[in-house]
Amino acid sequence: MALDQQLLDILACPDTHHAPLTYDAGAQTLTCTECGRIFEVRDDIPILLLDEARQAPPAQGSGQAS
Fold it and tell me: Which family does the UniProt entry place this protein in (predicted)?
């Protein structure tokens, strides 16, 4: 079961900036559009705890030559 669109519309990062979250149904995660924290969705319940969030991996291809 996927998260309800109405719920996704109101969810925001629990950090002080309260930025919107993007949902990845395949990975069952919500990602903050500002800080990049990744929150898991377990049993269709978003786990929006800062202590349980993980940081997004560094972007590949940062433009620096080897």
Answer: Belongs to the UPF0434 family.
